[in-house]
Structures are given as structure tokens and as C-alpha cells.
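[step 3/7] fold_predict: job queued, chain A
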Amino acid sequence: MHKPVAPALGGIPPLIKRNTLLFALSQSFVGAGTQLAYGIGPLMVIAVTGSASLAGLTVGLFGISRFLVSYPVGKITDTYGRKPGILFGQGLALIGSLISGFAMLAGSAVGLTLGMIVFTSGISAGQQLRVAATDMYPPRQRGLALGFVQTGSLVGILLSPLVMGLADVIAQRTGHSALGLPWLMMPVLILGGMILVFFVHPDPKEIGMNLERYYPGYVPPPRPANGQEVAFNSWDLVRQPRTRLAILANCVGQGNMAIVMVLTSLVLSHHGHSLTAIAFSHSFHAAGMFAFTIPLGWASDRYGREWVMYPGVGMGLIGALFVAFSEGFVSVTLGTFLVGLGWCAANVASTALLADSVETQHRGRAIGVSESGGGAMTLLAAAVTGPLVECTNLPAAGIVAVLIAVVPLAMLAWTKAAQMRAIS
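[step 4/7] structure written:
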């Protein structure tokens, strides 16, 4: 039994601050691999298959794995604790990175596909780290907690080019594949992330079930009168308007972003911009995704989840319009930045809202439901973007991204109208 800890300045106990820092650093180490998968994944597929038509395979595998893995791992963390689920995911990512690296050195398409399936499944399982962050904070600070942890992904973006640069130097001296060597280096970072998680104590689920011990004055929600735990039902999340809209906002944020990430490169290339310019534009997208997680998390705590979540969806819609219908580098880059920022706002606020809506022992599955939906939407978006561009034109794919973003806003308007009719 862990002793109560008095809150430090700012209302966050030292133990919670320590655990949050460990999680954020772990996220930065493991997140470097995610950036590698998105950054050089298409090049790896083309190198081993010789087919540009399969270049979106790695992005598609992220969607598939998130859809298949998120809920089962959420059940594991709800049953056994957050740390076992997170370490399981990071272990899978470590194994998958090794398989992918050796597959690239051998030029094996089958091996690369297997390795990326294992790697992306591990990354998807590791998303339970966000659940752990919400466990350790009371509702008034959960958005900020997510912001702290998600900022670690921004550090991962900076680590990824360093790994790639070191691999390139070694490849020039040894003659090995510069696309395969980074994956043989990633296990060092992932192992470091696992060690950091190992030192988190007590398990965040235990903290979440006993918040009053860590935050004097915090009053937990009333427990059932008969003392029996209410069973978790995923359909309850869908039946309740607030949680249904939160899940939908996260899903469309993922789908909107999946389309625009592909579309940005195609639009800029179509208008004659260099690869360096395209990479620079994508860096603004990444900045939008992760650089503002702390202020957006704070805003969702201060002003309410919906006041951050729905404007985030709106920003994604506006950004998709800029990318689809602009020709200039500045306007396209502004669009991709807004899409990243909108995704960040919708993701942080919707996750916090779901965490507020369920008990600690159900939280892994609840957020797993949302992430599974996001994975399905990512997969769908990746599947339709290529054929749309091939059969019609670039703006057509952008219109689809806009229409996706319109859905939760339209449902919000419908829900509010229904509530007003019920009152009158």
C-alpha cells in the first residue's frame, strides 16, 4: 500500500510528476520509431517490392493494427494494470523493429510485412500509455496530463532524423541498406523506453482507483450502493451523446489526417516543389500535432472538453480545404499545420472526455474502443485516397477529408437541436 503524498506547488504530487516524466520520456524514445515508419516506410516497401502502388502499406498497417489491437490491450490493462499492457506493446515494437531491419537487409517483402505488422501492433498497444496518464490525475487536470505525455512524441520527431543520419553514415561505410539499419538501432531506444516504464510506481491503475490518497480534498464519485462493480459495455459509450461524439471526433480526426498526410506530398509535388520543401511542410504538420498538446490540454481542463474538441474538428476541416484547393507552398503548409493542430485538439479533448466518463477499471477498454474506431477510419481513408487521386483529381480526395470532418459537427448540431426540442 502506497503512502499518501501531499501535492506539491501546482497541485500535482511529486510522485505523479515523476511518473509523468518517465512516461513522457518513454514516449519520446518509442515515438522515434513511429516517425521512421511514416517517414521511410513507403521507401522501404518500394525497395523490397519494386512497386510504387504498395507504398501506402505501412500507413495501412498502422490502421489495421490499431483497429485490431487497441481494445484487447485495453482489456489487458483494465485487468492486470497499465504497466503490463504498455510493456507488452513496447516489447512487440522492439521485436518488430528487429524483424523489419533484418528483412530490409535481406530484401524480403514478406519479412518486412511481418515485421511492420508486429511493430505497428506494438505501437498501437503502447497507446495505453495515454490511459495511464489520465489515471494519475483528477478530472480537472486530465487534459494537461495528456498534454505532458504527448509532448514526448515531439521529442521523438527530433530523435528520428538523428537515427536516420547515423544509419546513413554507417551504411556508406559498410555497404548495408540505409533503410534497414535504423530499425536495427531502434531496439536500443525502445529498450530505454521500457526501462523508464518499469520504474513507474505504483501502477497508474492503482493510483486512479485511489486518487483521494494522492490529492487531499479530492472526492471520488459515489460507488454502487450494493458494492458490486458495474460491468463494462462498449455500447453504453455509443448510446450516450457526449461519449458517442467524442469517439466520432477522434475517428474523423484520424481519417482526415490520414488523407491530408498523403495529399500534402502529392499536391506540393504536383506544383513542382522539391523534396526538401515537402519535408519542411510535413515538419509543420508534426509541430501542429504535438507542439501544442500542453496548452490544448490545459484549455480542455479550463473551459471544457467540447470547447477544444469541436473547434479541433473544425480546424481539421479548414486545413483540408487549404491543402486540397491551394497551389502555393505557404497556404498548403498552413493547411497541413491546421490539420495536425486540429487532430491534436480533438484527440486530447476526446480522450480526456472518455476518461472522465468511465471508471478507472474500465478506462483502458473505453479508450480502446475510440482508438479501434480511429484505426478503422485511418484504414478506410488510406484505401480511398489512392483510387480517388488516380481516377479523378487531387481536390476530390481533399473533399472527402472535408466531408469526413463535417460529420461530427453535423451530429453535434442535430443533438443540440433535439435537446432544445425536448426542453421546449
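[step 5/7] annotate
DSSP finds 17 helices and no strands in the chain.
The CA atoms of residues 199 and 343 lie 31 Å apart.
exit 0
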